[in-house]
Amino acid sequence: MNTMPKWLLWLLLLLNIILIGFLITMNNMAAMWMMAVIMLLDSVGSLVVGYRK
């Protein structure tokens, strides 16, 4: 089974660390937008891997 590219996985990890920072500083609106971006990148990456042969 194919997996997402390593650079995308590192990017998602970095964005999750930034998300935790937003939550610690109680910046809830930025955290909500960051979570939406992370979920979008994850789903697009999964689709690309799913359709790649």
What does this protein structure show overall?
- The chain is mainly alpha-helical.
- Helix content is 81%, strand content 0%.
- The chain has helices at 6-24, 28-51.
- The mean pLDDT is 92.
Question: What's the quick description here?
Answer:
With 53 residues, the chain is mostly helical. The protein is built from two helices and no strands. Helix 1 packs antiparallel against helix 2.
Order of helices and strands: HH
* Beta content: under 5%
Please tell me what the overall shape is: elongated
Instruction: Tell how many strands the DSSP assignment holds.
Output: 0
Tally the helices: 2
Overall pLDDT confidence: 92
| Uncertain runs | none
Structural class: mainly alpha
Span of the ends, CA to CA: 10 Å
Q: How much helix is in the residues? A: over 70%
Biggest β-sheet, characterized?
none
Keywords: Membrane, Transmembrane, Transmembrane helix
